[in-house]
Every structure is written in C-alpha cells, then in structure tokens.
Amino acid sequence: MSIPRFHLAFPVKELEKTLIFYRDLLGCKTGRSSEKWIDFDFWGHQVVAHVSPQDAGKSASNEVDGHSVPAKHFGVILEWDEFHELADRLQDNDVTFVIEPYIRFKGEPGEQATMFLLDPSGNALEFKSFRDESQIFAV
C-alpha cells in the first residue's frame, strides 16, 4: 500500500527567489510551472508556489516550549540524520532561523529536533525529527 502524499499551494512574492530557495537550498526537485506558479517535490509531497504578493508571509504566532512559533507554517518530518544534515547545510549557507535547530520537549513524550525558517516570501517552514517515530503523536 502506498503512503498518501499531501498537496499544498501557498502564496509567494515572486518565483525567481522561490525557485532558488526550494530547489537549490532545500534540494527540492521541480515539476510543472508557468510564469505564475511552480511545483516542487517537497520530500515526496507536491507543494505549489503561486505568485500572490499581497498574501505571502502573513502569520501570527503562538508560544510552544518557550519559543514564538509561527501559527501558519508547513514542513516535513525527516529522519534524524537527514534533519541534522539539512540543519548543517542551512547553517553553512547563513540562513537566518526563526527558531534555530534545537531539541524540543527534551526528556518528555514527543521529544523532537526542530527548526523554523522563512522562505524568501516570508512563509514559515518547520523541519522536525523524532529519534523514536512512535512518539510523533505522543501526549
């Protein structure tokens, strides 16, 4: 049985910087595109950046584990080593983090590595990883 994949469309200010960020920095392959949108393979999921400058990057925030987390964000749960490889690559490229890579809920159910960053349009992304994936929905 195949695992379902999600589809997410999100607004961006323009496509050139979006393409460089998702393809070159994050390593996402590209799919179909036009002058108004571009498909990305986001770790097996289809995300589509649509040009809509007036809607890009707007979000409130909530406190989680002592950090101000953007309420509107998307991301992916990576394998432990892949998370740390991505964190290293982002740090090597001088990415500014909203929340730098750290271990959240340390010693508690759902302990996870997490980091938040913004794409060039101000859209928030979260990447996380669990040492024990059975803890993803732990309470």
TrEMBL record:
InterPro entries: Glyas_Bleomycin-R_OHBP_Dase, Glyas_Fos-R_dOase_dom, VOC_core
Pfam families xrefs: Glyoxalase (PF00903)
Residue ranges annotated for the VOC domain, each copy included: 4-130
CDD domains, alphabetized: VOC_like
Official protein name in the record: Glyoxalase
Species, as recorded: Rhodohalobacter mucosus
